[in-house]
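REVIEWER CHECKLIST
Item 1: Sequence provided? yes
Item 2: Single chain? yes
Item 3: Sequence as submitted:
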Amino acid sequence: MWHPFRDDIDYYEERARGLLASAWDATPTALGIFGDVPLTEEGAREVVAREHGCADWRELAKHIRKPRPFARAYQAIETYNPGELQAILSNYPELAKASGTNGNDLLGMAAATCDERLVKVLLKAGANVAHQNVHGWTALHQAAYRGLPAMSQLLLDAGAPTDVSARGDGGTPLAVALFWGHTETADLLAQHGVHPPNLRVAAGLGNLDLAVDPGAGRQFYRPHSGFPRWWPTDDSQEVVDEALSWAARNDRTEVFEPLLKRGARIDADVYRGTALAWASWCNRRHAVETLLKLGADPNRQATFGGPMHGEGVTALHLAAEQGHLEVITALLDGGADRSLKDASFDSTPQNWARHNNQTEAEELLGGH
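Item 4: Structure as written out by the authors:
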């Protein structure tokens, strides 16, 4: 049974929608939770209520308001208090292996805080380092998602598996790290095996020889339900286009030309971001300059991230949002048009910088 750890019912509405998204992605653990329940929002609420030991949603709303030790342990994590967490676990040692809403355990939630002290407390208390929530996500996935090499090493030393998938086949911790351009963490994880050995992972690691099965394990495509649904195919064009994007976000410029020779399209927006867009968002100045030299269009308007974030954006919008000054300069020197507006907010890159309080980027875009 799942332990509640928040007392606002809206939180559980979000968790139900996230569970449904994973089931739609055919994640085995999420599908198993549903069983014969329809894959609908109503069905997801039914499942979440049932897994908390409640007959329906109304009963869950009452259930979550009762104070419980698991919720107290979660609060200790949320407030970065390892001493309090250790004290609670001393009184309730079973909580180290208990599961909360959507199968989230305390170890995974501690990893999300980026605080190694909390993780050490839970590991010492006997937390299961291989535990997967309903999305298939482990604590090591969380460390990869955040780009935390030290925490990743801590979990690896404790025996965390590196070959388990989350949110679709091929969604290993390594794939998650590469998706976000966390190269240091990815390099560490790759020392424990290249899982899966497809082309996008190989490109992200800068070594195409690692692609034993170029198109395999590509069912993973979004790290969370904030990204829109998409169905990857085994189309060789899609495979090589995506590989170029993964290489760009990880600054693996050495494989750009080999991928282009294999047919990759330099401006392809295969899924939520061209190679130039991702390189710009990840602050990869060298990759940006290399892509521009190879013919990338600095004014290509494409998608990026969630649908409410990036529609009709340019690489300059994304660099401005993040305040990446060297990338902004490289894009402007490469012909980027600072007057172009995105499709969602009808705003220029300078507006994006202002909205995100990137003062230096705003000034640079106003006077470059």
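Item 5: Key structural point noted by reviewer: The mean pLDDT is 96.
Item 6: Recommendation: ____
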